[in-house]
Amino acid sequence: MTSLENLSPTEMPELLIVEDETAIRELVAFVCESEGFRVNRAEDIASARAALAASRPDLILLDWMLPDMSGLDWLKELRSDRAWSSIPVIMLTARGAEADRVCGLETGADDYIVKPFLPRELVARIRTQLRRRPSPNEAEDGAERRAEPRETAVVCGPIRIDESKFEVAIDGKPVRLSVKEFKLLKLFAEKPGRVFSRAQLLESVWQTAFVDERTVDVHMLRLRKILAGTSAEDFVETVRGVGYRAKDYGS
Fold first, then answer.
1. How would you class 250 by CB atoms within 10 Å of its CB: exposed for 0-12, middle for 13-18, buried for 19 or more?
2. What is the distance between the alpha carbons of residues 54 and 57, in angstroms, rounded to a whole number?
3. N or C: which terminus of the chain has fewer CB atoms within 10 Å of its end residue's CB?
4. Rounded to two decimals, what is the model's pTM?
């Protein structure tokens, strides 16, 4: 994990701001650059794609309503492309209805900020998403570990999860999950029988305290619907007043 305070200007995380309104785009850029972040700007999805191809950002700040394509639709593309799916994305939009927040988070946004925003809060949320950014030494160690063949599958009862391929199968049949649903299922499968509070799930899967705990319930409902009709339909159960836990097939 990298401490941003110890980084030189050239080592600071690079942000890509995708916003069509010039005044807002420049305000966000000013706030971020004042904190030392390196910033690239894009006014639409076409220029965002060009910026992404030229330089991989450490985080994307993405507006929803853009002139050539919905930011939400581009987010879907990013999350379905293995080359870009791991880049943290914060939606920064005027659409503040609860349904819009849930839709953005379900699509794969790591956080959701409604305009107008407080500059200090924006910076805090950016730092939260970057907190687990590996240091150069950690990145090198990770590259060495990835170069070594290893078993990446997690098996729990009829469920098999292959993190390296982003694949889930139940009784050998593939199951399609969103990024957050995948992370939730993997967390439960790795620690069957353990009770997780909603706050713990937010910290582990969303890695932020800024998302409402109701978001967890929405994703758990979607996960249960996906598991329904399979041999793992009772895999996750609600622990009333506490949170959720997964069935321990070994007990």
1. exposed
2. 10
3. C
4. 0.62
CATH number at residue 195: 1.10.10.10
144 domain-assigned: no
- The DSSP element (H or E) to which 229 belongs, if any, is none
3-state secondary structure of 154: strand
How high is the pLDDT of residue 39? 96
**Whole-number pLDDT of residue 163:** 84
User: What pLDDT was estimated at residue 3?
Assistant: 59
| Token representation of residue 186 | 């993997």
Could you give the 3-state DSSP secondary structure of residue 182? helix
Helices (H) and strands (E) in the chain, counts: 9, 12
- Give the per-residue pLDDT at 209: 55
Q: Which residue ranges in the chain fall short of pLDDT 70? A: 1-6, 132-152, 207-211, 250-251
Domain that holds residue 15: 4-137
The secondary structure element, H or E, covering residue 138 is helix 136-147
- Cα dihedral 51, 52, 57, 60, rounded to 10, equals 90
Q: Do 64 and 180 sit in the same domain of this protein?
A: no
Alpha carbons 205 and 37: distance in angstroms, whole number: 25
